C-alpha cells in the first residue's frame, strides 16, 4: 500500500547537511594502540532548523543523503580495518583482555548504529537515489564484515588469548567464545584445503538457495475456471481476476488467490484442483535443488565438526539438538491427538451434511474451519474494526506495558525524522526515572517503504571501559493504512500484530547486557519471539480489549464482554488441528537436515497420515518443491516459532493468568529474563524465573479449554 499524493506533499523534507569528522579514543587507545574511531556528526543547518537527533544518541542518524551514506560506509570500513589491524599486531607475549577482546567489542558496539544509519534508509527513504546508495552501502559493509571474520592474523591472536584462560567476567567470556566461533565457522581452524572447501560449499549453498526461490518467484502457473466452479467467492475477488474470451476466470497460484479458494470456494473439486496445482509447483525443478542443497549443508556441517546440518544449526539455541526438537514436536503432536481427532470428526460431519459422502481431504480443512467459524461465532471483523482506531490502541498498549514492566513512555518532539508522520518516544524506568532507551514508530504504508511489519535495532545497549553507556534505540515499522490523510481503524489482526511487534521494542530496550553482541534483539533465536508471543496474549483478555478500545471514552465505546469472550474462543478454534499442520512441516524440515539421503517423497507420505490423523498428503504433491522456509531463513529451525509460542503460553498462564498486568511478576520478567540478554543461557533464565523447566502443559490446556 502507498501513501496518497496529499500525504506526499505534506512530507517534511530535511535540508541538506554537511558532515564533519569527530574522533574519540576507545580502550585500544588507552593501552597505547592509538586506534582512533572516526564517526560523522551532522551539522545544524545554517538556517538554524529546530530539528535535532535524540538526546544522547550522537551516532543514530536519519535523513542522510546518498553521498553521506556512501562516505559513512567507507569510514566504517576504514576504521574497522584499523582496529582489526591493531589487534593483529599485538605481540603474542603481551596479549590481554584490554588489547584483544575489548577493542573488538567496543568497535562492534559503536559501529552498529553507524551501520544501521547506512542500511536502514533502503527500507524507509522516499528518495530512490538514497535507497540505491543504502543498498550499495549494505553490500560493501557486509563484504567487509565477512572478510574480517576470515582474517587469520586476528583469529590467531584471539585464539591464543583464549587459550591463556585469563579470568574475565562471564559475559566477556561468552563474547570471546562468540569471536572464536565466528572465525571457526568460516573454517579458520581448518587446513587451507578444507577452508577452500568451506568457501566453495557456502557459495554453492547460496546459489542453490537463490535458484530454489527464483524458481518459485518465476512460476507462472495458472488455472481457469468458469464462474459456477468458483461459487462462494465474493464478487470483488472475482472482479479482480482476469477473464478469458470464453468468460473463464484466470487464477494464479499466488498465495492470496490460493487462500481465497481454499477458504471460501464451495466446490470441493475446485478446492482439490487448486490444492494439487499449488502443491506441485516447481516439483521437477526444485526437488533436485533441495536434495543437492541438503547434501551440501551436511558436508559443510561435517567439515565444521558436526554430525549433520541440524546439529550445526541448533548448537547455540535453547533446543541444542535435533533429537530434542523432534521429541518436543512429537510430544505436542501426541498430546493434541485426542482434541484434534474431535475437531476433525466435527469437520467431517459438517462436510457430509453439505456435500454428501465425498471423502474429506486436507484441502478441505480451511474451508470447513471457516464454515464453522461463520456458524458458531457471531463475529464481524469489519464491524469490530471501528473499535480500534490507532489513537486508542497505541496509548492502550503503552499503558499495558507501563503497568506490566514498570516503565514510563513519553513522546519526544522536535527531533529529526525521515517522514512527517514518524514519531519518537523515550522510555524511562517508572521507579527511578532513569532513561532506558528510545524508539521510533513508522506506522503507515507509503511508496518506497519496506512492505513488512518488523522491529529494527538502530542502536544496542553497551557499557564501555570508560564508564560510558550507550542506550538502546529501536524502530518499529508497521503497514497501517490511511484514507484521505487520516489513519484507518485497525483490523483485529493488525492489533495483534502491533502488540507482537511492540513486545520486540520492550525486549530491545529492557535488554541491559553490557556487550552490544548480546543486547537489543541479539539473543538466542529460540527465545527471541517469546516476549512478543507473551504480549500477544493480552490481546484476547477482556481487560485489555476494553482498555485499547475505550482508552478514551469520548471517542468510542469499548467492546462488550460477549465479543471479548468470542474473540478468545475464535483464537483457539480448531487450534489442535492447526498445530498439527505446523508440526508436520516442522518435522519434515528437521528430519531432512538430521538424516542422510532422505527420500523426500517417502518421508512426506509417511509423516502426513501419522501427524494428520490419517489424512493423506494431497495426491501428487510434495512440500519439498515449494517450502522456502526450509531453504532460506528457517532451515532446520522451522520449529522455533512454535517453541516460542509454547513457552510464552507457560509464562502467561503461570505468572499472569488473570489477564491483568502484574507489576511484580512483570518486573521480575524484565529484570531477570530480559535484562541479562544473550550473554546468558536463555533456558537457564526461564527456568530460574519459573522456578522449574518450561512446560508444554499450558499450551495444551489453553487449546482444550476452548475446544468444541
UniProtKB/TrEMBL annotation:
Belongs to the peptidase M3 family. GO terms for biological process: proteolysis. One of its GO terms (cellular component) is cytoplasm. Keywords: Coiled coil, Cytoplasm, Hydrolase, Membrane, Metal-binding, Metalloprotease, Protease, Transmembrane, Transmembrane helix, Zinc. GO terms for molecular function: metal ion binding; metallopeptidase activity. It comes from Eruca vesicaria subsp. sativa. Its main location: cytoplasm. The chain crosses the membrane at residues 21-42. Its cofactor is Zn(2+). Residues 191-218 form a coiled coil. This is Peptidase M3A/M3B catalytic domain-containing protein. Residues 263-702 form the Peptidase M3A/M3B catalytic domain. It is found in: Cytoplasm. Binds 1 zinc ion.
Amino acid at each position: 500500500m502507498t501513501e496518497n499524493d496529499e500525504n506526499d506533499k505534506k512530507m517534511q523534507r530535511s535540508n541538506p547537511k554537511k558532515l564533519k569528522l569527530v574522533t574519540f579514543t576507545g580502550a585500544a587507545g588507552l593501552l597505547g594502540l592509538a586506534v582512533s574511531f572516526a564517526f560523522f556528526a551532522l551539522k545544524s543547518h545554517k538556517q538554524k532548523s529546530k530539528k535535532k537527533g535524540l538526546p544522547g544518541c550522537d551516532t543514530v542518524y536519519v535523513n542522510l543523503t546518498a553521498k553521506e551514506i556512501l562516505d559513512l560506509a567507507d569510514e566504517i570500513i576504514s576504521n574497522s580495518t584499523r582496529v582489526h589491524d591493531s589487534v593483529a599486531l599485538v605481540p603474542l607475549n603481551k596479549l590481554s583482555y584490554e588489547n584483544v577482546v575489548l577493542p573488538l567489542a567496543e568497535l562492534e558496539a559503536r559501529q552498529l548504529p553507524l551501520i544501521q544509519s547506512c542500511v536502514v534508509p533502503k527500507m524507509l527513504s522516499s528518495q530512490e537515489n538514497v535507497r540505491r546508495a543504502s543498498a550499495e552501502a549494505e553490500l560493501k559493509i557486509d563484504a567487509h564484515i565477512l572478510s574480517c571474520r576470515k582474517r587469520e592474523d586476528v583469529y590467531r591472536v584471539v585464539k591464543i588469548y583464549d587459550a591463556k584462560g585469563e579470568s574475565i567476567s562471564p559475559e566477556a567470556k561468552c563474547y570471546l567464545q562468540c569471536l572464536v566461533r565466528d572465525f571457526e565457522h568460516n573454517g579458520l581452524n581448518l587446513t587451507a584445503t578444507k577452508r577452500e572447501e568451506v568457501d566453495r560449499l557456502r557459495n554453492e549453498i547460496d546459489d542453490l538457495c537463490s535458484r530454489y526461490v527464483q524458481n518459485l518467484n518465476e512460476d507462472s502457473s495458472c488455472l481457469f475456471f468458469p464462474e459456477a466452479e468458483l461459487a462462494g467467492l465474493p464478487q470483488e475477488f472475482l472482479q479482480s481476476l482476469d477473464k478469458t474470451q470464453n468468460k473463464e476466470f484466470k487464477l494464479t497460484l499466488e498465495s492470496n488467490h490460493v487462500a481465497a479458494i481454499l477458504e471460501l470456494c464451495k466446490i470441493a473439486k475446485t478446492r482439490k484442483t487448486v490444492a494439487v496445482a499449488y502443491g506441485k509447483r516447481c516439483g521437477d525443478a526444485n526437488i533436485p535443488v533441495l536434495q543437492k542443497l541438503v547434501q551440501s549443508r551436511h558436508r559443510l556441517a561435517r567439515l565444521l565438526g558436526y554430525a549433520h546440518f541440524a546439529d550445526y544449526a541448533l548448537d547455540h539455541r535453547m533446543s541444542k539438538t535435533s533429537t530434542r526438537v523432534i521429541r518436543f514436536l512429537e510430544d505436542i503432536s501426541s498430546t493434541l491427538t485426542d482434541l484434534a481427532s474431535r475437531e476433525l470428526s466435527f469437520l467431517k460431519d459438517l462436510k457430509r451434511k453439505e456435500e454428501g459422502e465425498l471423502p474429506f481431504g486436507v484441502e478441505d480443512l480451511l474451508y470447513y474451519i471457516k464454515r464453522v467459524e461463520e456458524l458458531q461465532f457471531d463475529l464481524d471483523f469489519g464491524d469490530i474494526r471501528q473499535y480500534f482506531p490507532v489513537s486508542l490502541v497505541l496509548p492502550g498498549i503503552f499503558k499495558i506495558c507501563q503497568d506490566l514492566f514498570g516503565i514510563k513512555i513519553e513522546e519526544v518532539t522536535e527531533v529529526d525524522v525521515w517522514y512527517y508522520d514518524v514519531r519518537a518516544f523515550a522510555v524511562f524506568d517508572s521507579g527511578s526515572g532513569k532513561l532506558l532507551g528510545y524508539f521510533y514508530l513508522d506506522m503507515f504504508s507509503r511508496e518506497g517503504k519496506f512492505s513488512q511489519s518488523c522491529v529494527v535495532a538502530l542502536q544496542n545497549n553497551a557499557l564501555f571501559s570508560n564508564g560510558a553507556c550507550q542506550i538502546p534505540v529501536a524502530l518499529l515499522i508497521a503497514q497501517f493504512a490511511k484514507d484521505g490523510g487520516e489513519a484507518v481503524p485497525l483490523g483485529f489482526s493488525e492489533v495483534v500484530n502491533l502488540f507482537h511487534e511492540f513486545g520486540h521494542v520492550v525486549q530491545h530496550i529492557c535488554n541491559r547486557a553490557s556487550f552490544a553482541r548480546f543486547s537489543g534483539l541479539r539473543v538466542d533465536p529460540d527465545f527471541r519471539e517469546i516476549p512478543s508471543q507473551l504480549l500477544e496474549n493480552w490481546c484476547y483478555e477482556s481487560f485489555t480489549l476494553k482498555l485499547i478500545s475505550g482508552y478514551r471514552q469520548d471517542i468510542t465505546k469499548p467492546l462488550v464482554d460477549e465479543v471479548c469472550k468470542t474473540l478468545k474462543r475464535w483464537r483457539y478454534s480448531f487450534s489442535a488441528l492447526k498445530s498439527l499442520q505446523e508440526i508436520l512441516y516442522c518435522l519434515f524440515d528437521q528430519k531432512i537436515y538430521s538424516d542422510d539421503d532422505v527420500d523426500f517423497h517417502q518421508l512426506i507420505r509417511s509423516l502426513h497420515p501419522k501427524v494428520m490423523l490419517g489424512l493423506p498428503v494431497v495426491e501428487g504433491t510434495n512440500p519439498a518443491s515449494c517450502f522456502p522456509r526450509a531453504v532460506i531463513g528457517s532451515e532446520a529451525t522451522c520449529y522455533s516459532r512454535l517453541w516460542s509460542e509454547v513457552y510464552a503460553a507457560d509464562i502467561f498462564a503461570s505468572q499472569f493468568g488473570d489477564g491483568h498486568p502484574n507489576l511484580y511478576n512483570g518486573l521480575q520478567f524484565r529484570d531477570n529474563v530480559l535484562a541479562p540478554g544473550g550473554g546468558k543461557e536463555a533456558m537457564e533464565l526461564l527456568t530460574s524465573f519459573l522456578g522449574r523447566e518450561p512446560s508444554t502443559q499450558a499450551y495444551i490446556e489453553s487449546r482444550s479449554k476452548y475446544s468444541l
